[in-house]
Amino acid sequence: MSGAAVPSSTSRTSGQSRVIGLVLLGASGRMGRAIEEAATAAGGFRIKGRIDRPQSQTAETPVVAEPLAPGDVVVDFSSPEGTMAACDLCVSAGAALVSGTTGLNTAQEGRVAATARSVAVLTASNFSLGVLALRRALQAALEVLPESWDVEIVERHHRLKADAPSGTALTLARDVGKLRGIPESGFRHGRSGRIGPRPPGELGIHAVRGGTWVGDHTILVAGAGEWLELRHVAQDRGAFAHGVLAAAQFVATAPAGMYHLEHLATGGRGI
Ligand code: NAD
């Protein structure tokens, strides 16, 4: 890592609307660049720091090391190790954290939860509003359909994605698991060989990788002689970036605590 930002106060434009200082962790990556582009277009944000691995630092994303302070937001789309560095940075500066990094292990998730005891933290495996709507639609469908209907999740992502299945596929699977009482040990990641009939209560998850797919999630719910398909396709990273900026605005003034995208849709109350 290089270019850690240092402490001061969140800026205001001549007593008018508040400008939120952002530090982008993973600034040179696909999401880091999309978020900076969206923040510049939206206005109301100032990039105070761009942090990346030294080998990924580009001329287009030079490090801006400005003081970081309470009211500023670290936006992390990097790697699980990067998320741990973001937690350190936020706790030491009293800045809020928005993290979309996926593939964290249990200990790393625990570290993020511990950070939320000091500062406001908002995490989401998918920042698009469409996926929030997809989760609600899935819940509504499963409330109507009997448990004998089989659920399978298929996700497609670009060839460079580091983790599988996607964080969003896991979130969807956990949503189904909660409604149907299926523990994570009932998640079946792909199938091969003479596996025999599908056991009741299994939940299939399939990760497809290739090309430049930004993010595509399909949930198949199959009954006898009929089936239902719910699908969300992210066509470009702007779909996530807008949710990230809304999250940054939310945590910039929120008290310490752990928040999720649902809090934005319900004015902070959660669902
Ligand atoms: P990417 O590989 O294009 O970019 C990641 C960047 O982070 C790279 O530039 C890399 O050098 C940098 N990085 C990694 N570890 C670092 C560290 N320890 N310190 C500093 N910099 C570090 O990946 P991406 O497509 O931008 O995705 C990044 C993460 O965000 C992944 O975990 C991905 O799954 C996740 N993601 C989440 C959402 C969402 O809506 N929650 C959407 C897209 C991607």
Any overview of this molecule?
By secondary structure, this protein is an alpha/beta fold. The protein folds into two domains: about 10-125 and about 235-265, 3-Layer(aba) Sandwich (Rossmann fold), CATH 3.40.50.720; about 130-235, Dihydrodipicolinate Reductase, domain 2 (2-Layer Sandwich), CATH 3.30.360.10. It is about 30% helix and about 25% strand. It is built from seven helices and eleven strands. It has helices at about 30-40, 80-95, 105-115, 130-145, 165-180, 240-255, 260-265, and strands spanning about 20-25, 45-50, 75, 95-100, 120-125, 150-155, 185-190, 205-210, 215-220, 225-235, 255-260. It has a six-stranded parallel beta sheet with strand order 2-1-3-4-5-11, with helices on both faces. A five-stranded mixed beta sheet has the order 7-8-6-9-10, covered by helices on one side. Helix 1 (about 30-40) packs across helix 6, helix 2 (about 80-95) packs parallel to helix 3 (about 105-115) and helix 4 (about 130-145) runs parallel beside helix 5. It is elongated. Residues about 1-15 have low confidence and may be disordered. It binds nicotinamide-adenine-dinucleotide.
Tell me which CATH architecture of the largest domain applies here: 3-Layer(aba) Sandwich
Contiguous low-pLDDT stretches (5 residues minimum) are 1-15
Spatial shape: elongated
Largest sheet: 6 strands, parallel
Q: Approximately how much beta-strand content do the residues carry?
A: 15-25%
Strand order in space, largest sheet: 2-1-3-4-5-11
Report the average pLDDT across residues.
Answer: 90
CATH class designation of the largest domain:
Alpha Beta
Distance between the termini: 36 Å
Number of helices: 7
CATH superfamily annotation of the largest domain: NAD(P)-binding Rossmann-like Domain
Structural domain count: 2
Q: How much helix, percentage-wise, in residues? A: 25-40%
Order of helices and strands: EHEEHEHEHEHEEEEHEH
Question: Per CATH, what is the topology of the largest domain?
Answer: Rossmann fold
Bound molecules: nicotinamide-adenine-dinucleotide
Number of strands: 11
